[in-house]
Amino acid sequence: MRLVTRNRHVKVYVPLDTSAVAAGADAVAAAFADAGAEVVRNGSHGMSWAEPLIEIDDGGRMAYANVAAADVPDLVAQRGGHPKCIGPTADVPYLARQTRAVFDRAGEDAPLALPKSTVLADCLEQAPEAMIDTIETSGLRGRGGAGFPAHIKWRTVFDTPGEQKYIVCNADEGDSGTFADRLLMEGDPYRLVEGMTIAGLATGATKGYVYLRSEYPIAARIFQAALANAYDAGLLGTDILGSGKAFDLELFIGAGAYICGEETSLLESLEGKRGEIRVKPPVPAIAGLFGQPTLVHNVISYACVPAIMTNGGDWYANLGVGRSTGTMAFQLAGNVRRGGLVEVPFGITINDLVYGYGEDTRSGRPVRTVQIGGPLGAYLKPEEFDTPLTYENMMALGAGIGHGGLVVYDDSVDLAAQARYAFEFCEVESCGKCTPCRLGAVRGKETMDAVIQARGEGRAAEDKLAMIDDLCEVMETASLCQMGGMTPIPVTSAIKRFPEDFRP
Amino acid sequence: MPESDHSRTALTRMIAARHLNRVGGVLQALREVVLEQGHIERADEHVVANVFNLSQAEIRGIVSFYHDLKTSPQPPVTVKVCQAEACQAVGGRAFTERVEAHLGVELGDANERVALEPVYCLGLCAQGPSMMVGQRPVARADQCDLSHEIGT
After folding, report:
1. What's the helix, strand, coil split of chain A in %, to 5?
2. pTM given for the model
3. Residue A24, domain member (yes or no)
4. Min CA distance, A243 vs chain B (Å)?
């Protein structure tokens, strides 16, 4: 059986990103190549639940979910009649319902194929102030966790005198339940290159660094190759697209430390040192890398920029709700049937994400809690799932959107074990610089162990729970950074919302 | 000094020199020593300190901070099993126990053939439990044949 129509090869798209490769995409690609197809290794569309999601393009792209190498002969024979066919890619509801401003190119083509974008050329002709104004109009806020207004950072870097200003991208995506940075760098690396270059042009920074975690080797490979291509195509270097303007970009791989996702710790690490956090102020926009004005954003924040520059700040500001403007790349993870990337305007509810997109738990048991915003995020109850997701609404619940990850748990979860884990994670990953975090994590874990032991013996350790309350207050108010400062959030949210799990 | 020690330090010196003028070069050099030599020995720290004109204490401080900068010889295969929340939510703890039993190695431990390490997130959070065998990511690892994926 050969996959040839009217004497021409049919194109088959088989993603090369981590989520597809980890599900066996390489063998599938090899099987299609053996069948005579022209195989394109594209990025992922973000439908992790369907990986490897392959597409057969014979005058229109048809998607097939969870394809194994053994399926290939039948797929080739039956095409649209095959049970794994989920219809034309563009019509798959999971994708069709999304509003993609950042991930619109991801999955379309090979990640290293240069896109036909003119946004960089347009920005090269704009004055820095005009670009910063556009960012201000858009209302863009940092997508890494803190949600700080981007334009304030941009303007500060622009206004602060410095011999060498820097653009730094935080791609140390360590929060469990998040993979948007990885998907973008593996699926559309040029989007990040464009976003950082525009930020450089707007702030007067001519050097940029992407700090990527070492747990993402495939992203490292793809992004490194994209950088080389971008230099060859004149998108980077001393004379960008013949404009005479310069921007250099380099990839830096971390060495295994969650704390390096904290911006000052990341800068220390980038300088080659121990990734211990710095006391703020001064903020990095004033004194960052090597003491110079430095713009630090995460991957998705930079990746929002090209769409804003192309369509205008007002267009972006009209997406979303109130001061939570634009789209958010939510990541649906954990015990959910259809986990993956869902980029939609702010204002979607957790219910819509978990049930509408996610179609309930993978285990088939009822949802008991969702942890939103990574390991330092709150555990929420199903009664709260109808809240529209905005920075403000989450803050009102004592929670945060963080990097947009939602981890779904069914009713087999033990929230006391999760609270203990929050301390344990802090113990493993604390940089050790401040006492509340370094020691608080250890004491917290020990005390939670005592609570769990008492529960097993049929006792409620109220004294220990009171101690944990005190400890959390100290960590929250006296830690130098968010690692110690926010570890209490998963702990206290679990105790407050699920008190029954901490008592017999 | 045996021949092999000379070639080891020569290679480390070469690696360090290559990173000397790069931003964060010392950390990148130490990473590469691990990639090339498997781990960092005292002699390597000495060489790197020399090349970068830093104290050995500074180098030791960096080495002791990062999980990836190993200071003892590693077995040929490292299996990293995700311990973070998204994998916990889909049976990550039970899966970890299965891997421990399969390899006869506890998490955080190693034998002469394989090291079993915790990892906190591989970015496969919608397809857990996940693990990494060498540099190869594995999704839905609970459904895989462990003998096939990681040997015995």
Report:
1. 45, 15, 35
2. 0.96
3. yes
4. 27
